[in-house]
Protein backbone atom coordinates (compact mmCIF):
# COMPACT_ATOMS: atom_id res chain seq x y z
CA UNK A 1 0.00 0.00 0.00
CA UNK A 2 1.21 3.50 -0.88
CA UNK A 3 0.09 6.40 1.31
CA UNK A 4 -0.10 10.08 0.42
CA UNK A 5 -0.72 12.58 3.18
CA UNK A 6 -1.49 16.21 2.45
CA UNK A 7 -3.94 18.75 1.20
CA UNK A 8 -6.83 18.15 -1.14
CA UNK A 9 -8.62 21.15 -2.55
CA UNK A 10 -10.57 22.49 -5.49
CA UNK A 11 -8.78 24.53 -8.17
CA UNK A 12 -11.07 27.20 -9.56
CA UNK A 13 -9.39 27.86 -12.91
CA UNK A 14 -9.89 31.26 -14.51
CA UNK A 15 -9.08 31.62 -18.20
CA UNK A 16 -9.92 34.25 -20.74
CA UNK A 17 -12.48 31.76 -22.08
CA UNK A 18 -14.26 31.24 -18.74
CA UNK A 19 -14.08 29.60 -15.30
CA UNK A 20 -13.88 25.89 -14.48
CA UNK A 21 -13.44 23.96 -11.22
CA UNK A 22 -11.04 21.01 -10.92
CA UNK A 23 -10.16 18.91 -7.89
CA UNK A 24 -6.50 19.41 -7.02
CA UNK A 25 -3.86 19.91 -4.37
CA UNK A 26 -0.32 18.68 -4.95
CA UNK A 27 -0.42 15.60 -2.67
CA UNK A 28 -3.91 14.67 -3.87
CA UNK A 29 -2.70 14.89 -7.49
CA UNK A 30 0.21 12.59 -6.65
CA UNK A 31 -2.20 10.07 -5.09
CA UNK A 32 -4.35 10.06 -8.22
CA UNK A 33 -1.25 9.80 -10.41
CA UNK A 34 -0.01 6.77 -8.51
CA UNK A 35 -3.43 5.09 -8.64
CA UNK A 36 -3.66 5.64 -12.40
CA UNK A 37 -0.29 3.95 -12.68
CA UNK A 38 -1.91 0.89 -11.08
CA UNK A 39 -0.63 1.19 -7.52
CA UNK A 40 -2.89 0.72 -4.47
CA UNK A 41 -3.02 4.13 -2.78
CA UNK A 42 -4.70 5.73 0.20
CA UNK A 43 -5.01 9.49 0.63
CA UNK A 44 -4.91 10.96 4.14
CA UNK A 45 -6.20 14.52 3.95
CA UNK A 46 -9.12 16.64 5.02
CA UNK A 47 -12.15 17.81 3.03
CA UNK A 48 -15.42 19.34 4.10
CA UNK A 49 -19.05 18.32 4.14
CA UNK A 50 -19.90 20.58 1.23
CA UNK A 51 -20.25 20.41 -2.54
CA UNK A 52 -16.53 20.91 -3.11
CA UNK A 53 -15.78 18.18 -0.56
CA UNK A 54 -18.13 15.84 -2.39
CA UNK A 55 -16.17 16.59 -5.57
CA UNK A 56 -12.87 15.80 -3.85
CA UNK A 57 -14.15 12.45 -2.58
CA UNK A 58 -15.72 11.52 -5.91
CA UNK A 59 -12.56 12.41 -7.82
CA UNK A 60 -10.37 10.24 -5.60
CA UNK A 61 -12.78 7.33 -5.64
CA UNK A 62 -13.05 7.49 -9.43
CA UNK A 63 -9.34 6.64 -9.59
CA UNK A 64 -9.70 3.96 -6.87
CA UNK A 65 -7.85 5.98 -4.24
CA UNK A 66 -8.86 4.91 -0.72
CA UNK A 67 -10.10 7.55 1.73
CA UNK A 68 -9.61 6.50 5.37
CA UNK A 69 -10.71 9.89 6.74
CA UNK A 70 -14.33 11.09 6.65
CA UNK A 71 -15.21 14.70 5.77
CA UNK A 72 -15.13 17.23 8.61
CA UNK A 73 -17.07 20.38 9.47
CA UNK A 74 -14.63 22.91 7.98
CA UNK A 75 -15.01 24.28 4.44
CA UNK A 76 -13.14 22.43 1.72
CA UNK A 77 -9.99 24.33 0.74
CA UNK A 78 -10.05 26.29 -2.53
CA UNK A 79 -7.22 27.45 -4.80
CA UNK A 80 -7.98 29.97 -7.52
CA UNK A 81 -5.68 29.49 -10.52
CA UNK A 82 -5.28 32.26 -13.09
CA UNK A 83 -4.09 30.81 -16.42
CA UNK A 84 -2.22 33.24 -18.65
CA UNK A 85 -2.04 33.17 -22.44
CA UNK A 86 1.02 30.88 -22.32
CA UNK A 87 -0.79 28.31 -20.17
CA UNK A 88 1.13 29.05 -16.96
CA UNK A 89 -0.81 29.09 -13.68
CA UNK A 90 -0.63 31.49 -10.70
CA UNK A 91 -2.58 30.79 -7.50
CA UNK A 92 -4.44 32.33 -4.56
CA UNK A 93 -5.73 30.15 -1.70
CA UNK A 94 -8.47 29.83 0.94
CA UNK A 95 -7.21 27.03 3.18
CA UNK A 96 -7.97 25.04 6.30
CA UNK A 97 -5.26 22.52 7.17
CA UNK A 98 -5.44 20.39 10.29
CA UNK A 99 -5.77 16.68 11.04
CA UNK A 100 -6.88 16.45 14.68
CA UNK A 101 -6.59 13.02 16.24
CA UNK A 102 -4.40 11.67 13.43
CA UNK A 103 -1.63 10.49 15.75
CA UNK A 104 -3.92 8.00 17.49
CA UNK A 105 -4.93 6.43 14.16
CA UNK A 106 -1.50 6.27 12.52
CA UNK A 107 -0.51 2.78 13.70
CA UNK A 108 -3.62 1.34 12.06
CA UNK A 109 -3.67 3.51 8.93
CA UNK A 110 0.02 3.06 8.12
CA UNK A 111 0.53 -0.58 9.10
CA UNK A 112 0.67 -1.81 5.47
CA UNK A 113 2.37 1.27 3.99
CA UNK A 114 5.58 0.66 2.04
CA UNK A 115 5.92 4.24 0.74
CA UNK A 116 4.64 7.50 2.20
CA UNK A 117 4.61 10.70 0.17
CA UNK A 118 3.94 14.22 1.38
CA UNK A 119 4.79 17.80 0.55
CA UNK A 120 3.57 21.23 -0.41
CA UNK A 121 1.18 23.20 1.83
CA UNK A 122 0.64 20.22 4.14
CA UNK A 123 4.25 20.33 5.36
CA UNK A 124 4.35 24.09 5.87
CA UNK A 125 1.00 25.32 7.17
CA UNK A 126 0.16 25.08 10.89
CA UNK A 127 -1.36 23.34 12.68
CA UNK A 128 -1.43 20.40 10.27
CA UNK A 129 2.26 20.53 9.35
CA UNK A 130 3.28 19.21 12.79
CA UNK A 131 0.86 16.31 12.41
CA UNK A 132 2.31 15.48 9.00
CA UNK A 133 5.86 15.50 10.39
CA UNK A 134 4.75 13.10 13.12
CA UNK A 135 3.26 10.80 10.48
CA UNK A 136 6.53 10.80 8.52
CA UNK A 137 8.52 10.05 11.68
CA UNK A 138 6.12 7.20 12.49
CA UNK A 139 6.39 5.71 8.98
CA UNK A 140 10.15 6.13 8.50
CA UNK A 141 11.30 2.89 10.20
CA UNK A 142 9.18 0.76 7.86
CA UNK A 143 8.44 2.80 4.70
CA UNK A 144 10.17 4.69 1.94
CA UNK A 145 9.55 8.43 2.43
CA UNK A 146 9.19 10.93 -0.41
CA UNK A 147 8.88 14.70 -0.28
CA UNK A 148 8.16 17.56 -2.68
CA UNK A 149 8.24 21.06 -1.10
CA UNK A 150 6.20 22.55 -3.98
CA UNK A 151 6.62 25.95 -2.37
CA UNK A 152 3.74 28.44 -2.34
CA UNK A 153 5.19 31.85 -1.34
CA UNK A 154 1.71 33.38 -1.55
CA UNK A 155 0.75 31.17 1.43
CA UNK A 156 4.03 30.71 3.31
CA UNK A 157 5.89 33.96 2.65
CA UNK A 158 8.67 33.48 5.21
CA UNK A 159 11.42 31.75 3.23
CA UNK A 160 13.54 31.16 6.34
CA UNK A 161 10.69 29.27 8.01
CA UNK A 162 9.92 27.36 4.80
CA UNK A 163 13.58 26.38 4.45
CA UNK A 164 13.70 25.03 8.01
CA UNK A 165 10.49 23.08 7.45
CA UNK A 166 11.67 21.68 4.13
CA UNK A 167 14.98 20.55 5.59
CA UNK A 168 13.18 18.63 8.37
CA UNK A 169 11.37 16.58 5.75
CA UNK A 170 14.35 16.26 3.40
CA UNK A 171 16.43 14.77 6.23
CA UNK A 172 13.78 12.04 6.69
CA UNK A 173 13.09 11.43 3.00
CA UNK A 174 14.48 8.82 0.63
CA UNK A 175 13.21 10.44 -2.57
CA UNK A 176 13.09 14.23 -2.88
CA UNK A 177 11.83 16.24 -5.84
CA UNK A 178 11.85 20.03 -6.11
CA UNK A 179 11.61 22.54 -8.91
CA UNK A 180 14.42 24.96 -9.65
CA UNK A 181 11.98 27.72 -8.67
CA UNK A 182 11.45 26.07 -5.25
CA UNK A 183 15.17 25.93 -4.61
CA UNK A 184 15.83 29.45 -5.88
CA UNK A 185 13.21 30.78 -3.44
CA UNK A 186 14.45 28.67 -0.51
CA UNK A 187 18.14 29.45 -1.19
CA UNK A 188 18.29 32.81 -3.00
CA UNK A 189 21.44 33.48 -4.95
CA UNK A 190 22.51 29.83 -5.01
CA UNK A 191 22.60 27.44 -7.95
CA UNK A 192 19.57 25.12 -7.50
CA UNK A 193 21.71 22.11 -8.40
CA UNK A 194 24.18 22.97 -5.65
CA UNK A 195 21.27 23.23 -3.23
CA UNK A 196 20.08 19.79 -4.36
CA UNK A 197 23.55 18.32 -3.90
CA UNK A 198 23.59 19.70 -0.36
CA UNK A 199 20.16 18.21 0.32
CA UNK A 200 21.51 14.80 -0.67
CA UNK A 201 23.81 14.99 2.36
CA UNK A 202 21.08 15.97 4.85
CA UNK A 203 20.17 13.27 7.33
CA UNK A 204 23.37 11.30 6.83
CA UNK A 205 22.73 7.59 6.36
CA UNK A 206 19.00 8.17 6.96
CA UNK A 207 18.72 11.01 4.45
CA UNK A 208 17.84 11.08 0.76
CA UNK A 209 18.85 8.38 -1.70
CA UNK A 210 18.13 10.78 -4.56
CA UNK A 211 17.26 14.44 -5.07
CA UNK A 212 15.59 15.42 -8.34
CA UNK A 213 15.20 18.94 -9.74
CA UNK A 214 12.67 19.80 -12.45
CA UNK A 215 13.89 22.68 -14.62
CA UNK A 216 11.29 23.44 -17.26
CA UNK A 217 12.68 23.47 -20.78
CA UNK A 218 16.11 22.37 -19.54
CA UNK A 219 14.70 19.00 -18.48
CA UNK A 220 14.85 17.21 -15.11
CA UNK A 221 18.14 16.56 -13.35
CA UNK A 222 18.91 14.26 -10.45
CA UNK A 223 21.72 13.32 -8.12
CA UNK A 224 22.36 10.20 -6.05
CA UNK A 225 25.35 8.43 -4.56
CA UNK A 226 26.31 7.02 -7.97
CA UNK A 227 26.43 10.40 -9.70
CA UNK A 228 24.22 12.78 -11.62
CA UNK A 229 21.73 12.32 -14.45
CA UNK A 230 19.79 14.54 -16.81
CA UNK A 231 17.21 14.01 -19.54
CA UNK A 232 15.79 16.51 -22.05
CA UNK A 233 12.26 17.80 -21.56
CA UNK A 234 9.79 16.45 -24.13
CA UNK A 235 8.39 19.09 -26.46
CA UNK A 236 4.60 19.15 -26.36
CA UNK A 237 1.61 21.30 -27.22
CA UNK A 238 0.61 22.85 -23.89
CA UNK A 239 -2.98 23.11 -22.71
CA UNK A 240 -1.87 24.26 -19.24
CA UNK A 241 0.76 23.37 -16.66
CA UNK A 242 -1.61 22.49 -13.79
CA UNK A 243 -0.47 19.30 -12.04
CA UNK A 244 2.54 18.63 -14.26
CA UNK A 245 5.01 18.48 -11.39
CA UNK A 246 2.69 16.18 -9.48
CA UNK A 247 2.45 13.80 -12.45
CA UNK A 248 6.25 13.84 -12.61
CA UNK A 249 6.42 13.00 -8.89
CA UNK A 250 3.89 10.17 -9.19
CA UNK A 251 5.71 8.59 -12.13
CA UNK A 252 9.06 8.93 -10.36
CA UNK A 253 7.69 7.10 -7.31
CA UNK A 254 5.95 4.56 -9.53
CA UNK A 255 9.32 3.78 -11.07
CA UNK A 256 10.86 3.22 -7.63
CA UNK A 257 8.02 0.84 -6.73
CA UNK A 258 8.25 -0.97 -10.08
CA UNK A 259 11.93 -1.62 -9.30
CA UNK A 260 10.90 -3.23 -6.00
CA UNK A 261 12.72 -0.56 -4.01
CA UNK A 262 9.89 0.65 -1.76
CA UNK A 263 9.96 -0.22 1.92
CA UNK A 264 12.60 0.63 4.51
CA UNK A 265 14.14 -2.82 4.08
CA UNK A 266 15.17 -1.73 0.56
CA UNK A 267 16.69 1.58 1.63
CA UNK A 268 20.25 0.35 1.04
CA UNK A 269 19.48 -0.87 -2.47
CA UNK A 270 17.72 2.42 -3.29
CA UNK A 271 20.84 4.28 -2.19
CA UNK A 272 22.95 2.10 -4.47
CA UNK A 273 20.84 2.79 -7.57
CA UNK A 274 23.02 3.43 -10.62
CA UNK A 275 23.15 6.80 -12.36
CA UNK A 276 21.75 5.11 -15.49
CA UNK A 277 18.77 3.78 -13.54
CA UNK A 278 18.23 7.27 -12.15
CA UNK A 279 18.26 8.63 -15.70
CA UNK A 280 15.63 6.08 -16.73
CA UNK A 281 13.42 7.12 -13.81
CA UNK A 282 13.75 10.77 -14.82
CA UNK A 283 12.90 10.02 -18.44
CA UNK A 284 9.71 8.16 -17.63
CA UNK A 285 8.63 10.83 -15.14
CA UNK A 286 9.23 13.57 -17.71
CA UNK A 287 7.06 11.72 -20.21
CA UNK A 288 4.25 11.47 -17.67
CA UNK A 289 4.41 15.21 -17.06
CA UNK A 290 4.33 15.80 -20.82
CA UNK A 291 1.03 13.93 -21.08
CA UNK A 292 -0.42 16.07 -18.30
CA UNK A 293 0.53 19.42 -19.83
CA UNK A 294 -0.96 18.32 -23.15
CA UNK A 295 -4.48 18.41 -21.68
CA UNK A 296 -6.38 20.70 -19.34
CA UNK A 297 -6.16 20.43 -15.58
CA UNK A 298 -4.36 18.01 -13.28
CA UNK A 299 -5.08 14.95 -15.40
CA UNK A 300 -2.21 12.45 -15.00
CA UNK A 301 -1.77 9.53 -17.39
CA UNK A 302 -2.78 5.94 -16.80
CA UNK A 303 -0.15 3.24 -17.05
CA UNK A 304 -1.51 2.25 -20.46
CA UNK A 305 -1.23 5.84 -21.72
CA UNK A 306 2.29 6.20 -20.40
CA UNK A 307 3.30 2.88 -21.95
CA UNK A 308 2.04 4.12 -25.31
CA UNK A 309 4.11 7.29 -24.93
CA UNK A 310 7.15 5.21 -23.99
CA UNK A 311 6.57 3.17 -27.13
CA UNK A 312 6.70 6.31 -29.25
CA UNK A 313 3.00 7.04 -29.66
CA UNK A 314 1.60 10.55 -29.26
CA UNK A 315 -0.02 11.45 -25.92
CA UNK A 316 -3.75 11.94 -25.66
CA UNK A 317 -5.15 14.86 -27.64
CA UNK A 318 -4.76 18.14 -25.79
CA UNK A 319 -7.87 19.63 -24.27
CA UNK A 320 -7.38 23.33 -25.01
CA UNK A 321 -4.79 25.33 -26.89
CA UNK A 322 -1.17 26.11 -26.28
CA UNK A 323 2.03 27.02 -28.04
CA UNK A 324 3.42 24.35 -30.35
CA UNK A 325 6.72 23.10 -29.08
CA UNK A 326 6.36 24.56 -25.60
CA UNK A 327 8.25 22.71 -22.89
CA UNK A 328 7.42 21.28 -19.50
CA UNK A 329 7.03 23.61 -16.52
CA UNK A 330 9.58 23.60 -13.75
CA UNK A 331 7.22 22.90 -10.86
* DSSP strand content: 15-25%
DSSP strand tally: 14
> How does the overall form come out from the CA principal axes?
globular
Largest sheet: 8 strands, mixed
- Per DSSP, the total helix count is 11
Spatial gap, N to C terminus: 26 Å
Radius of gyration: 18 Å
- Poorly predicted ranges: 315-329
Give, in spatial order, the strands making up the sheet with the most strands. 4-1-7-8-9-10-11-12
Order of helices and strands: EEEHEHEEHEHEHEHHEEEEHHHHE
Core attributes:
14 strands; eight-stranded mixed β-sheet; 20% strand; four-stranded mixed β-sheet; disordered C terminus; 331 residues; alpha/beta
Explain briefly what this protein structure is.
The chain is an alpha/beta fold and 331 residues long. The protein has helices spanning 26-36, 51-62, 102-109, 128-139, 159-172, 180-186, 192-201, 244-258, 267-271, 275-293, 303-310; strands at 2-5, 9-15, 18-24, 41-44, 78-83, 89-94, 115-119, 144-148, 175-179, 210-214, 221-224, 227-230, 235-236, 326-327.
Amino acid sequence: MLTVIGEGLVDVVQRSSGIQAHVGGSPLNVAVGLARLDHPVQFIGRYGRDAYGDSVAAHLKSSSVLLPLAPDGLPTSVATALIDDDGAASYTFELAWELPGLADRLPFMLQATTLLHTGSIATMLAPGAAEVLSAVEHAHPSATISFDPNCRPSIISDADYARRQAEKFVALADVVKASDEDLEWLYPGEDPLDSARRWLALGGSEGPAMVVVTRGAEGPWGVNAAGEAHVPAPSVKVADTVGAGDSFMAALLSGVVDLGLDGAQNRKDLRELSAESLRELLDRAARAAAVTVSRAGANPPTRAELNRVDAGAQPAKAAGHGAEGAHLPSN
